[in-house]
Design a protein that fits this description.
Number of strands: 10
Largest sheet: 3 strands, antiparallel
Strand content: 15-25%
Distance between the termini: 66 Å
Strand order of the largest sheet: 2-1-6
Number of helices: 10
Helix content: 40-55%
Shape: elongated
Low-confidence stretches: none
Length: 311
């Protein structure tokens, strides 16, 4: 799979289970050969020595069971492990706390479906004033349904009965939440995942998207960067500055008006090169684009006095 699909799968599993694992596959020379996201049905923590869940040790083993019946065990040091709601212990918390809200939302959908299914049905009691045997009773009931409860045979919707029987309709009504109650249920689910409704339906403003980026996307990027760096490099390599960094330029997702306003403010200060400005606008670099342009309206503070005194 592509890098996008691999990361998508890891994050999707993280949000549905509270934990996500990816296997680091090394070749015989110790070089990284592949990264495989895992989708296990269950995971058991095992140790080959003294258990120590507070630190990463070579003794920590994770035993996974998969949907195809296979079972595999890997050293924890060979696994990328992402966690949500990491309070204590070894694993992040699952989504059981959200289950009551999910059940309520499901009940609302079921109620709407049931209401639509029963809206066109007429239910009632056909009561006879005298004793009738079962076979005759069923025959009269079927004839009543055929003649009076069918819009084809009874388009006028009028029922005619003699003194032997009476019909009492039963109008059951399903309980359906109003728009405000439905919105409150959805808001609880959105709040749990830290996502606003406008993010989901794509109607967010630039400021709302930046807030989403900083509160949801950026923490995931920090966690990915830290975990990949810890698992792919030794302590000595990390001390020498080696690291894996996940990042996404916020300006890529900004509107053109925001980009233009930013360039209008920053280019005169000489803070951006021509190619950096073109990159903000999703344009390719040009050969002489490493130059910086600066407005003559600005002056170095060290030379301000000389400039003012015309020296």
């Amino acid at each position: 799979m592509s890098a996008y699909d691999g990361l998508y799968r890891m994050i999707a599993y993280l949000y549905t289970h509270g934990n996500s694992f990816a296997l680091l596959d090394f070749d015989r020379k110790g070089n990284l050969a592949g990264i495989y996201p895992l989708s296990p049905l269950g995971m058991e923590i095992c140790t080959t020595g003294a258990a120590n869940y507070s630190t990463l040790t070579a003794n920590t083993i994770c035993k996974f069971s998969f949907s195809n019946g296979c079972v595999a065990a890997f050293p924890y040091s060979q696994l990328i492990h992402l966690r949500r709601f990491y309070v204590s212990g070894f694993l992040g918390e699952d989504n059981l706390v959200l289950e009551p809200v999910i059940n309520l939302a499901q009940a609302e959908n079921d109620g709407i479906t049931a209401s639509l299914q029963t809206a066109g049905n007429v239910r009632g009691i056909l009561k006879f004033e005298q004793l009738i045997n079962q076979s005759e009773l069923k025959k009269i009931k079927d004839g009543f349904i055929r003649d009076y409860l069918s819009t084809v045979n009874n388009p006028a919707g009028v029922i005619a009965l003699d003194g032997r029987a009476s019909y009492q309709p039963l109008n059951g009504q399903s309980v359906i939440l109003d728009a405000e109650q439905s919105a409150a249920i959805r808001q609880k689910i959105y709040s749990y995942f830290g996502i606003a409704e406008k993010i989901v339906n794509g109607s967010c403003t630039d400021d709302e998207f930046l807030a989403f980026y900083e509160s949801v996307i950026e923490p995931l990027a920090i966690q990915l960067s830290s975990e990949f760096t810890t698992k792919l490099f030794t302590a000595t390599e990390i001390e020498h500055g080696n690291s894996i960094i996940f990042e996404g330029s916020r300006m890529i997702f900004a509107s053109n008006s925001v980009k233009i306003n930013m360039l209008r403010e920053l280019l005169p200060l000489g803070l951006l090169t021509i190619n950096e400005a073109r990159n903000v606008l999703n344009l390719p670099p040009v050969p002489d684009g490493e130059r910086r342009l600066q407005s003559l309206n600005y002056i170095d503070t060290e030379h301000a006095n000389e400039y003012q005194m015309a020296k």
